[in-house]
Amino acid sequence: MNHPRPHPTRPDFDAVIVGAGFAGLYMLHRLREAGFTARVFEAGDGVGGTWYWNRYPGARCDIESVDYSYSFSPELEQAWEWSERYPRQPEILAYLNHVADRFDLRRDIALNTRVTAAHFDQGAGLWRVENDRGGRCTAQYCVMATGCLSVPKAPDLPGIERFAGATYLTAAWPRDGVDFTGQRVGVIGTGSTAIQVIPQVARQAEHLTVFQRTANFSVPARNGPLEAAEQQRVKADYPHRRALSRQSLFGIPVALPDTPRRTRDIPPAELNQTLETLWAQGGAMSLLAAAPDVLVDPEANARVAEFVRGKIRATVSDPRAAELLCPTSHPLGTKRLCLDTDYYETFNRDNVTLVDLRATPVETLTEHGLRTRDAEHRLDALILATGFDAMTGALLAMDIRGRDGRSLREAWADGPHTYLGLASAGFPNLFLITGPQSPSVFTNMVMSIEQHVDWIADCLIYLRARGIRSIEASAPAQAQWEAHVAAVADATLMPQADSWYVGANVPGKPRVFMAYLGGLGPYRQRCDQVAAQGYAGFALTPAAVAV
Length: 547
Ligand code: NA7
Hints:
Layout: E1 13-18, H1 22-33, E2 38-41, H2 50-53, H3 74-79, H4 89-102, E3 109-110, E4 115-121, E5 126-131, E6 136-144, E7 166-169, E8 184-188, H5 192-204, E9 207-212, E10 218-220, H6 228-236, H7 238-247, H8 268-281, H9 284-290, H10 298-315, H11 319-325, E11 338-340, H12 343-346, E12 352-356, E13 362-365, E14 369-372, E15 376-378, E16 381-384, H13 393-397, E17 399-401, H14 408-411, E18 430-432, H15 445-465, E19 468-473, H16 475-490, H17 520-532, E20 538-542
Parallel strand pairs: 1-2, 1-6, 2-3, 4-17, 6-18, 7-16, 8-9, 8-16, 9-12, 10-11
Antiparallel strand pairs: 4-5, 5-6, 13-14, 14-15, 19-20
Helix pairs in contact: 1-15, 10-11, 15-17
């Protein structure tokens, strides 16, 4: 019911931002530059988000460093020197700390502070935010910069409490590192994280046992030092390179093909030659960008998948291990296509054993190791590279309540509901950076984050200029967007795999495809169009009217 009300209660901040990773840092910078007051709350004792927590050996980004970096500041682009083609975690963390200092962001960031609740006060038209230190504050806007992969999946191994050795979660790795010299180590999982950890630990441990449930496709990174001349060439070309990335499918500088050729129409010898070239160059995203129809056409997918399986067989000398490492349960790319350095080669080492958990499932952890149906594996240490409650985990971990006290957990009980992945009906003045149903994890995250942050900042400037107090996604626009997201996903092979993209890795999680697959460039155009039409699909409420 709309009725006039006095001036809204003045909030403590124009905006509260949750999280100080790539998204939160840039959001703070943009809002401050635009003259808004903002406070960032961050659970860690430093900035960096994903790159603060994931310190496991081998942690590295699978997007090239010159692209996995902010584009908003040409001076920053020119000043920062990357040392390798793909950046290691410590280097990305150093970069984000440099950004925090360079733009004087720290004074508005509260570290060691986890937001536990955010309730929309309808009468006052503001968000009441609480944290785990007992602090409370109010803000007109609440921006969730909480990341897509920030809540580790709870360990779901029987008997884990009985294991007397050390247990390490890759997403909460000890800051001082771990020395596995002389130890018998087990790794559970063979996703992107494990594929990075395994070669590193194998070099140090006395023995490494890899417990594999599902084999994954991985492409060599061909990582190496980034030569000064190459970096200079990229820096000179940045305006063009970034423009290309912004309009691309995946947020990397690969142009959308004008008339894409169907992979199935390419003669086998020619396709093989192309794939050999891509394999030699390295890079998972570029492989997908070169043949995007592999995510749509089963025949195209089968051809590329068989090429990769051929590479695995050619690399792994034990034919039994090679066959186990060949993925057969899902089409290529329908689980995250991994990027590795020496992953398959590691299985040629004498001190590495591969255990097939499909054939011999885990019975229990014991005091001294892990027992499968067939054998007991003695372990001194266990590494859990078991993944995340992706896309929605961090948002639903907080008690978020919108209009009429309705909780986000209730509103999203059957899966996430958003308009453009930026906002959710019933939650006025709440923004999601790279929220579910936006391109997010299907792109270079930094490009997607910048796009969302810029859109949100421009939106708040627009609202301020017009004296608008509240913006809320409309239910019909949201329903239309969700139908579009689902239709695009259903036209691909993506929903077929039991992946974290559909929530299949977390027991009880509703099975919904949670990202937008239409590509970053087309998505950006859609968001820009919505803004140009005065935020079409959103309800805007002026200051003199209650929300
Ligand atoms: P992923 O890709 O979810 O991988 C988790 C792995 O752990 C995967 O191989 C799982 O097998 C395995 N897993 C999980 N739980 C178990 C249990 N209980 N028993 C055996 N194996 C298990 O997470 P990552 O951290 O590797 O990567 C996440 C993203 O981070 C990545 O895609 C990048 O975008 C960055 P399953 O496949 O479920 O059979």
